[in-house]
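To the wet lab folks,

You asked to see what we're planning to order before we commit. Fair enough. Below is the target structure as tokens, and below that is the sequence we designed to fit it. If anything looks off to you, flag it before the synthesis order goes out.
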């Protein structure tokens, strides 16, 4: 069976589907490289304004390839990380449509996305401690930001495994859906809202949010925002959209 990342683009949204069916979409070196290439292609496409990532059913991503991890040095590990690190660094909004197990590196991939949505079969399992493996790829930073200190430790040190219901309850996912068709539709709909905004604006705003989410004051955040907002006020996209809105209001 082939290992690939299939890409379809519709209404400004690139849907990337991980497919390594023999290994339940395990994030091996080949799949990591193909995910990086697929993301690069999506970002380079001016018609794409947001990205949805999902897995070939029935899994989302069942972790790293353990045979490749055995005896790996830091350089090799960074190559394994490259797929989800590319997602974390993507300038476009990213949505994880988690349709099955997200284990280890698969959990990292979900955490790397801006937004996580869960289908009925979603399962979030760190599994590092059970394997005798230290977390990598920025997992400890991402999980703490997603769940807070207690939640991060529950998932990591205490090996708690979350299904879709629990993941929604603790805030690991933004929304859950009753079937996978609704999950994909919901992911595309949310991604489509981001894609409908001017691309330069969405990229700048995401970059600003990344900066202001750190340990800075309200005043510092406002100072960072003011320059980007001033630039957007003078953009052609802003002028056109305000003019269209004013025209709609005047007709009421």
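Sequence we intend to order:
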């Amino acid at each position: 069976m082939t290992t690939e990342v299939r890409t379809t683009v519709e209404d400004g949204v690139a849907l990337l589907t991980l497919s390594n069916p023999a290994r339940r979409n395990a994030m091996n070196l080949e799949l990591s490289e193909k995910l990086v290439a697929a993301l690069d292609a999506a970002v380079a496409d001016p018609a794409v304004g947001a990205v949805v990532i999902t897995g070939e059913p029935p899994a989302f991503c069942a972790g790293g390839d353990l045979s490749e991890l055995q005896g790996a040095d830091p350089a090799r590990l960074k190559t394994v990380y490259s797929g989800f690190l590319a997602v974390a660094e993507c300038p476009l909004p990213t949505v994880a449509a988690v349709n099955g197990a997200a284990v280890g590196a698969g959990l990292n991939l979900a955490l790397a996305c801006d937004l996580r949505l869960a289908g009925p079969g979603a399962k979030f399992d760190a599994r590092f401690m059970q394997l005798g493996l230290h977390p990598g790829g920025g997992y400890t930073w991402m999980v703490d930001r997603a769940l807070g200190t207690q939640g991060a430790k529950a998932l990591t040190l205490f090996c708690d495994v979350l299904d879709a219901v629990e993941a929604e309850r603790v805030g690991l996912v933004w929304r859950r859906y009753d079937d996978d068709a609704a999950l994909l539709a919901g992911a595309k709909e949310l991604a489509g809202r981001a894609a409908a905004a001017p691309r330069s604006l969405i990229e700048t705003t995401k970059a600003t949010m990344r900066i202001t989410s750190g340990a800075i004051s309200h005043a510092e955040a406002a100072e960072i925002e003011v320059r980007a907002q001033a630039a957007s006020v003078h953009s052609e996209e802003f002028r056109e959209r305000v003019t269209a809105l004013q025209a709609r209001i005047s007709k009421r």
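Structural context that might help your review: The chain has eleven helices and nine strands. The first strand starts at residue 4 and ends at 10.

Thanks,
Computational group
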